[in-house]
From TrEMBL:
This is Diacylglycerol kinase. It comes from Pararhodobacter marinus. The chain crosses the membrane at residues 33-52, 58-77, 98-122. The active site is at E71 (proton acceptor). Mn(2+), Zn(2+), Cd(2+) and Co(2+) support activity to lesser extents. InterPro entries: DAGK, DAGK_sf. GO terms for biological process: phospholipid biosynthetic process.
Amino acid sequence: MKAWLAAEARRFWGTCVYSWRGWRAAWASEKTLRQWTLANALSIAAALLLPLSPGERALIVALGLLLLAAELMNTAIETVVNQLSPQRHPLAAKAKDCGSAAVALTAIAAGAAWVFVLWGLWVD
Ligand SMILES: Nc1ncnc2c1ncn2[C@@H]1O[C@H](COP(=O)(O)OP(=O)(O)OP(=O)(O)O)[C@@H](O)[C@H]1O
């Protein structure tokens, strides 16, 4: 049991290290990730300053973090495509375009949440 716990703790630590390494690599190469992170920081600050309910704040924060996760997955897709298909190919275009669409949809979801939350503040 003790050995199993130690192995699980090591595995979890490894996951944390790899994730932090991935974040730093994407941060260094992807301007879009840096821009979304700034937008997210402003969004979270606004959500904390405005008189929102805990549920509304949770929605804004969660969708903002999901947007960063979508951007990281898009970066992962772009990186693999660039490695496997440096020459132009319709399948490479499809993979990259789908990654972009995923980021765009998540951004629309976060924007829509803000519109409804602000609308709720306005009519109150
Ligand atoms: N190898 C390829 N084969 C075919 N089309 C490609 C290829 N690489 C890129 N494209 C097309 O160009 C678009 C932009 O690709 P690119 O790699 O420049 O992404 P990007 O503009 O850097 O994206 P982001 O701003 O999210 O980092 C893709 O969505 C795709 O339509």
